[in-house]
Amino acid sequence: xxxxxxxPAMAGAAALSRQDDRAPAEAxxxxxxxxxxxxxxxxxxGTLLGFWIYLMSDCLVFACLFAAYAVLGRNYAGGPSGAxxxxxxxxxxxxxxxxxxxxxxxxxxxxxxxxxKPATMLWLAVTGLLGAAFIGxxxxxxxxxxxEGAGPQRSGFLTAFFALVGTHGLHVSFGLVWLVTLLFxxxxxxxxxxxxxxxxxxxxxxxxxxVVWIGVFTFVYxxxxxx
Length: 227
Hints:
The protein has helices at residues 8-26, 46-72, 82-85, 88-113, 117-147, 156-189, 193-224. Helix content is 76%, strand content 0%. It is mainly α and 227 residues long.
């Protein structure tokens, strides 16, 4: 008669045997010796699609700010107008800084396509310096206006002006933070696919801000100095 009593040692050995049988499958090999591959189900270019959706939502934000300026742009409330406040040569210089930064970012994208990490980082650094110069001049303009008593609370025109131009400047500032972070990532990991995707997203964001600024320069500053 067979002994049907429970043997802990035999039970443990059987469990180890089952674990060993599963090991090849967990390591990427089936029990019959054939190999298999785990496919990650991630939509191709899903990140870029999501970023395009974000940019479209940002377009709505700026469209609302432009609409508010169109309504309030002539409400001076007895205060100064754009023709009295705007320093057009200074604004033109600031515009040149931002447009040049768009060109230098294009050079960094070309360098990334050529798999040249040093050139990519160099042109990104130049882009960051031009963007920082743009923000510096804009803050100087804001400080001068507030010192002259033309702050955002002075009139509807100035409220809409500070809201529109300030929101754009805030976007450029966030873009600079993103750019510096990307420089660190490139320095550490190089032009891996993830960093090249981040370069593309930041490129879309940066060129979008250039397009918005052209609208600001034309609609706010150039039309603002007209009588």
